[in-house]
Design a protein that fits this description.
It is a single chain. This protein is α+β, with helices and mostly antiparallel strands. It contains 22 helices and 20 strands. Helix 5 packs parallel to helix 6. The longest helix is centred in the middle third of the chain and has 29 residues. It is globular. The N terminus is likely disordered.
Length: 641
Amino acid sequence: MSDFLTHECGIAAVRLRKPLAYYYDRYGTNLWGLNKLFLLMEKQRNRGQDGTGIGCVKLDMPIGQPYVNRRRGVEKDALSEIFRKETKEFYKMSRKGLMDHKDPESVKKHFDFGGEILIGHLRYGTSGEFDVGCCHPYLRRSNWPTRTLMVMGNFNMTNAAELNEVLIDRGQHPVFGTDTQTVLEEIGYHLDEAHTDLYRQLRDEGVPGAEMPGRISAALDVPKLVAESAAAWDGGYAICGVIGNGDMFVMRDPRGIRPCHMLITDEVIAFASERVPLMTVFEADASEVRAVDPGSMITIKSDGSMSDSPFAPPQKYTPCSFEKIYFSRGNDPQIYRERKAMGAALVPQVVESIGGAFEKTIFSFIPNTAETAYYGLMDGLRLFRRQEVRSSILQASADGSLTADLVDDLILRNWPKGEKVAHKDIKMRTFISQEKGRDQMVSHVYDITYGVVKPGDFLVALDDSIVRGTTLKQSILKILARTKPSKIVVCSTAPQIRYPDCYGIDMSELGKFIAFQAAIALHRRAGRQSLLDRIYDDCVAELKLPANDRRNRVQQVYAAFTDEEISAEVSRMVYPEGIDWDGEVQVIFQNIDNLHASIKGECGDWYFTGNYPTPGGYSMVNQAYLRWYEGVVGRSYDLPL
């Protein structure tokens, strides 16, 4: 369910490949690049955000002219507000005679976002402060273009504290706050080093100062310096950086945990977290958009030349499965098919939960993100029922009992019925709300369609994921119970979320997971507190081992129970209190095998299995157990503040 916190972000980048005059001559506007950036960001906006930022780098600007600009905002509807302000400024400058909006060179000289490289970022985060200073892109300024750096990304580093220690050991003075700052400073350090080496070499060769910027820019080895920066990173990331001279790079983590896609045409090189926005905005076919390879860096030099090179050794491909289940837009053809498959995979459990009583069951879904999986569930139920009907008709025909009434009963009166029962009444995602006051908010998030479910019916509601169960217990079930069904079945397209994440989706506090709470409750009811104590000792011992040797000791929490036992305990724990209803509640979760069968190719499933793709994941999960056991709240991989 949409009741977890997240670092999941969206990135977009547009690199124009033609002179600015080309776009004005062909499209009649000098805002073509900026408009495309806005559309790419708007098309990824379903991820939600508490902050937005855009940046621009202009190529070949005369000495003394600004070449890097940035805007960030955290106000309500920040994305639209930023672009509205910039568009307003564009025409205001033209009206006042400060710029000719029809002249590409005038626009480039005077308008902050009239350049060839445009980048944008949608953020919703939970670490650091909720202010504009936490928004990407981050900017590191210098009076040398080849030392000026702007960075943004969709990522989280599990070892940000250790990375900061590296900076300190060098003698630097990092300002702790976010791992973005750590990444920026690390790349900035190697950029400074590369720049200084080139400057000294050229100076010793007697190159005149006026030629220095161009010579350094041409010789700057961006893949090498960024690869050196990334050598110690542990996490999932898609990062875009632009150097002030116009060199640009986009990189994806070696395991492909975070998504990143690319489109190359004669007019533009564009990047986005999702594939479909690139297809829609640039009217491209799916075959023209490709994923950036894991462990690869796309580099575009200021002269437009492009390279695609590995920056890290190949690793096992483990893309985040929550992209498939929840975050990415469902209009991506592959994701659409996979979400439908996840819904259909629940059919056997759903049919068992209602005892095959289709005639008295209403099927629905809860958040909008579950709608596609719901279509898959309904397709699967209809196929199941069709096969039942076919078998019954053939049997009745064989034994001579086939009548019109029997056919009506089999087909017309016993067919899966779908209805829109729950509506999200507050136009916000519950997981974006900060912790303070959150419980009061979730109790009023949903409303229902009255009169659809009759007293005594079964009500089956499909959800995409159930993490903490807060919304389910305090809002959803209380509202659904108003229809007085005899049973409410909530089924999740995701398996039980048992382990914290540290690669982007900030589900980091172990004690908040309803599956973990259920397992702990079962242990304590059975008098097994000593096992929980021993797991604590095991986690302490594990964290003393070298990072690459660590294992997930928290898996012992679940080893004693079947999935069904934990699901039954979850059902008991989320039962709504303080209402006039005594029906049954059953919570059903997808199983791991069906998840893998539904998703094409590899998928990272550490939330469900505890099998992490990097050493930092194992460090984090053991630390998360220690924090839960000791009653310490907060992320187990926070930076020292």
